[in-house]
């Protein structure tokens, strides 16, 4: 008997979560693609026509990394938070607490699935954007690396939100009140360098700025902050989230109450 | 002999100060069915929840198949299946996928042949592709049992398996348990339907106020605490109990056509022979006699009242 990590347990959770995604494949994929097309129409065509280019990159192409990040953050947080909140809501959470899966297996299963869904949708947006703008990715592997780390980081955050939430209202609240403003103020549609010095300093307090900046660097080789700092930011975020999740499972807070 | 579950001085005190369980020790043998009886809030579910890993004890140890539930929890939990009191299922999931999922959680690879066998034995095979929300209450409960059996547990916990279930379904559940017993699964069930414990259990443990008051083989418990009623059918109806028999614990029933006599099987003399002799001496002809044993409900009430008297004394 394998007494180490319960791999079939991780796979069971991952597969279970992915099946939910595929049951609603059309709305899972179609709605982000549709909203991305709208962003291209509004920001790319209507406004972009007046902006021309940002630091040598056509505005339509410039917003692609930001759009992908916006979707990844939303999808990662909502998928992971809903994934773990739903068993709490329906009462099936007991299964995770009585079976031979620890916090590592449960986290890997739920967060892995949420991150995978977020990445899949991001790739769909990337494919869609090729139809609208002329896009060359300078560092494709770094692009995938940032995509992966960001998906994992925000899925972990969503997982914590789902563990914390006691109602569907709370589940919606954090993404609405926190994630969206952070993304819009994190330079999804502009470069932080375009802001006045004071606001540029304020913007740099926003962790999402570092992610979008790093991601944009992978596309175009330009960044608001050094790439190393972006990597460090996402690494620190992942570490903090893992620490919190471990604490939640060790104490049973909002899990065994 | 060591049991499949060894509970040693187990205690649970909640943060609020409520003592849910105090110093419970119990050994459960492989292959037996043990019923934990007690009123609501007695500590039955707390005991089950600790063994299964839902609640952390404040004192004592539990070993399942020799594995400590705290230090060797993975091995201990692999041996256990839990059917919870509340029906909790993902509404849109297919029955068979739900069972497969649980099997995976327990670290087991796919085994569709076994899952088919489980679903068939619970009369769920025809419903394997139905979403759980489409099922009746009884079927949902059977799905929970199927899930609990998905990894071939050695020990099955049934927490109030027939709470809020109609009579027909209760009978059906008993048959399922009987089948599991034949398959060699050790079963621990909690109930406050005493009939259920009497019907199914090899042994009965009585819990009240977080204490295990006693554990006895069901038949022994019935013998020990059981009051019996002797019904004597008479040839000719009696208008009243003859004065000579007034000091006996007798009552007239069925419009004077029968005499009812309550006696204690624990007593040295039941007084039956003397009573029958006296009836003959008074020219009362007996047509038939029958006895009825009190059920566990009455036994339980006696027991709980006795312990309460001891506590207050």
From TrEMBL, chain B:
Pfam families linked to this entry: ABC_tran
Domain of life assignment: Bacteria
InterPro entries: AAA+_ATPase, ABC_transporter-like_ATP-bd, ABC_transporter-like_CS, ABC_transporter_ATP-binding, P-loop_NTPase
PROSITE patterns documented for this protein: ABC_TRANSPORTER_1, ABC_TRANSPORTER_2
UniProt keyword Ubl conjugation present: no
Residue span(s) of domain ABC transporter: 5-234
GO MF, one example: ATP binding
Keyword Transport: yes
UniProt keyword list: ATP-binding, Nucleotide-binding, Transport
Protein name: ABC transporter ATP-binding protein
Organism in which the protein naturally occurs: Paracoccus caeni
Origin organism lineage: Bacteria, Pseudomonadati, Pseudomonadota, Alphaproteobacteria, Rhodobacterales
